[in-house]
Design a protein that fits this description.
By secondary structure, the protein is of the alpha+beta class. The protein is 40% helix and 10% strand.
């Protein structure tokens, strides 16, 4: 079968911007996209640049955009891509600077990983002062990391992240998942765990995630970074770190549902902005528009049926041990 491949090319020595280039190649059954790219380089254009190493979905170096989605080329079936999309379009990872053709600069990705201090802190010193120490033997078995430790650092989640697309300073799914891995480690000191959570309360931290779920969809190792971010948020609230708008939103949402059995859209903005006078004045016009649109519940209306059952759910949840 003869297929047409559309590959995004960019050579910084001659190109001002990237451009698409088509190649045609006779392929057989059982080939991966990486197999085809290597043949294209060997048989059609030796200047085609790409990264690959293990060819076994272990190293993560062949991550790229294939038909609009971030994938490992070494584990992506050429036949399935063609049957599903009718074409094979390959481009470098998004949200990372392109060095040449399909090769991206991973330095921004690694900087985000380094910023979260990806090592255990077992002493009482702060995360900033602690240096990586040798791993100590665990006396009570392997902790439950929720498969976060399976990450191969391919960068696919960062490339798919919609927040990172508009805010390059966002910590990113991979780095935040790495923090969750250390929070789950019993060898990590309690002081260090709180320091990690505190450092992520500012802008570009855990609360910037919009939960688009794209990082979960593209992860080749089923790490589920978004779920790790949710666990970080839950841990922050349990630690009393509730000053951010994101934390106030979660707490206020739960309080309103427990109290009224439904979301009170009029009170929700007030829960988020807190007691800041300027912010209150900012949301006041929103409250007026909501009133005119019928979004404000009648405070003297009838009680919703089943409210006692809803409150019982909240009370039972409080008695349950943490996961």
């Amino acid at each position: 079968m003869r297929l047409t491949f559309t590959i995004q090319r960019f050579n910084p020595e001659v190109d001002a911007t990237s451009h698409a280039e088509e190649f045609r190649l006779d392929v057989g059954r059982g080939l991966t996209v990486l197999d085809a790219l290597i043949r294209l380089k060997n048989e059609c254009d030796g200047s085609l640049s790409l990264r690959y190493s293990c060819r076994s979905a272990i190293c993560g170096s062949c991550a790229m955009e294939i038909n609009g989605s971030e994938k490992l080329a070494c584990r992506t079936s050429l036949r399935r891509e063609f049957e599903r999309h009718g074409t094979v379009t390959v481009a470098p990872l998004r949200n990372l600077p392109v060095i040449k053709d399909l090769i991206v600069d991973m330095a921004p990705f690694w900087t985000k990983i380094q910023d979260v201090h990806p090592w255990l802190v077992t002493s009482s010193r702060s995360v900033q002062e602690q240096v990586p120490a040798s791993v100590k033997t665990q006396s009570h078995g392997r902790p439950h990391f929720h498969n976060v430790d399976a990450c191969i650092m391919c960068g696919a989640c960062v490339a798919a992240c919609t927040v990172h697309a508009v805010s390059k300073k966002f910590a990113g799914p991979a780095a935040l998942a790495k923090v969750d891995r250390f929070l789950a480690d019993p060898r990590e000191s309690l002081f260090a765990k709180r320091a990690r959570l505190s450092a992520l309360q500012d802008d570009h931290g855990m609360w910037d995630c919009t939960r688009c779920n794209f990082c979960v969809q593209v992860c080749p190792k089923d790490v589920k970074p978004m779920e790790a971010i949710v666990r970080l948020r839950r841990a922050s609230i349990e630690q009393g770190l509730t000053q951010t708008e994101g934390a106030r939103h979660i707490i206020g949402f739960s309080q309103l549902i427990e109290r009224e059995g439904r979301l009170n859209e009029a009170l929700m903005p007030l829960k988020v902005v807190g007691r800041e006078p300027r912010r209150l004045l900012h949301v006041l016009p929103l409250g007026v528009r909501m009133l005119l649109k019928g979004k404000v519940p009648n405070p003297f209306g009838h009680r919703l049926p089943g409210l006692d059952q809803i409150r019982a759910i909240f009370q039972r949840t409080r008695r349950m041990p943490p996961a």
